[in-house]
Fold:
Amino acid sequence: MLFFGGDYNPEQWPEQIWPEDVALMRQAGVTIVSLGVFAWSHLEPEEGRFEFGRLDRIMDLLHDGGIRVALATPTASPPPWFTLAHPEGLPVTADGVRLTHGSRDTYCVSAPAYRAAARTIATELAARYARHPALALWHVHNEYGTDCRCDLTASAFRSWLEKRHGDLDALNESWTTAFWSQRYSDWAQIMPPRATQYLPNPAHVLDFRRFLSDELLGAFVEQRDLLREANPAVPITTNFVQGGWVSVDHARWASEVDIVAVDHYPAAVDGRGEAETAFGGDLARGWAGGEWLLMETAPNLIYTPGRMHAKEPGRLTRHSLNYVARGSRGAMYFQWRQPRGGAELFHSALVPHAGPDTPVFREAIGLGRTLKTIAPYAGGEVEARVAIGWDAPSWWALQGGGLPAADIDYLAAVQQTHRALYRSGIPTDFVFPGRTDSGEASRAGDAVGSGGAAWVGGAGLRPYKIVVLTHLFLISDESAAALREFVAAGGHLVVGHLSGIADPAGRIRLGGYPGAFRDVLGVRVVEWRPLAPGTTIALDDGEQGVRWSERVETAGAETVVRYAGDVLAGAPAITRNRFGAGVAWYVSPGLDDDALRRLLERVAAEAGVTPLLPGRPPEVEAVRRGELLFLFNHGSGPAVVALPGSGTNAVTKRAVSESVTVPAGGVMVINMPDREFKSRTG
Ligand code: GLA
Structure:
């Protein structure tokens, strides 16, 4: 079964509406709803007094309607009584302001009172519903990521630091506290990063974000374990959210959940929305090492700065199926019914304010039918021969002040690399450096392959012919050594600027950038020359460098492209180095989308990696999952796509061969066995 549904908040509605909700869910083919995400103040109206009557009734009603439930623990939004009883459980900002209730996520994860209250409500829910027949999944909390800088956090941070660094000398060394007289002589002197006079110590900030990730994970694990004890057969997850403000290292969390669930809200409306969707799906699959679940996305209006954007007809279906094609076990939305009031009253829903007689609900009915039809074939794997490195701590390290350029943007850089491969039609995975830096094992069990324990995600680096690193600023010796081995054994490595620069503590690897990869790349970068906004630097292949340039010296590598302007005229810009049986490329300038795509296509051709469906029209995206071939037409006219073999339209059940026409803005799902597909594409 594929999951299809979304957040359902019956506590916002009079009970008379519930039967209509269930009837509409059945009409749309909804299979599952997330229930109770923000229901704490209803379930526990005062400390220790529980009211489960309404939840009992809605669970039973859903069950009678054949709808499964992802039951949430409501711990992301403590009720107002909690604030008054436990003011120390409220979060404090870096400026020292203690927040109060009135929104959501008003808790400090390090406050014992909050943790105890969260355990209590989770225990009550487990005791009552762990064996309810409607329960399919536990949905713990909502989008972990809350930040607090209070004294309770300070004390938890210090304990975490003691475990990580052992003693203060090691911490002082790791944080380079000799700079600006920051040497700590007592653990009690260490605070969470708080408002300070000028630039904070970047290593301090980085460790705090790592701490917060672990601290939040501890809160998740605590709930997970008590839910599991109540009924080990029910899978448990929490919904991951992406964003620069989120101090959660999802690659590390992934092994703690039974299925990786991800909220993804692509906001681009200028034709990049498709690429953003593909990026979110591929990254989620990487975290999961396979199948994952799209837990939330917007059914219609998308938040874009300054103005919401309504989805074009067909986009809901096209994007939802794209997540499924990229490994999701279904498509779920925020939310089922658009609320009458509350902070997100204009956020889109499957049943909008205007009711079910609307384009979005009609499209949902069609989508529900399609998901049901393809469900029996949709459990396969997505294969890729190219992987991009992703590292949350590198992102965090590149968010501080004091960097060489204000427009350094980790997410944008990684997305651009993914977009280039996406536009070339080359399937792409993500891989993650293991956290061997602190002596901890990385994701035990699945950290194999030529990457050893130093790279995780899928099967380490073993399945890949090409690995691309973009802004992977921090790297441990072990992870760098694994990449060296990968190249020596015949792999193709592409390293862009700002990768391999520092150790996991953020200390620069000396002797020339990128210190972790100088030998494998055969280059030495002696000077960074960030470009002023809006300026470019000419390259001798006719392309332009954007945002960034560097003075590169070769030390064994051949120069493929040279700078052709500024003081760098004639100096190497893009290099290629044979290393063992493999090849390592260094790309020092920033490139625009087309130039990056052409370069990666050249690397792919050399490595023998081909697009999934060579010769497809450019507006058509092809994704293969198991034996299903998904064709997405993002264009405004019908597209004729030549097929590599014959198969069956998985929705209409009609035989297809030679070519098919995918309608404008439409999707076609074809069941094509490997023998048909592989015989023509290799
Ligand atoms: C998140 C939350 C939801 C809702 C949506 C709005 O994903 O989990 O509760 O606020 O954002 O986009």
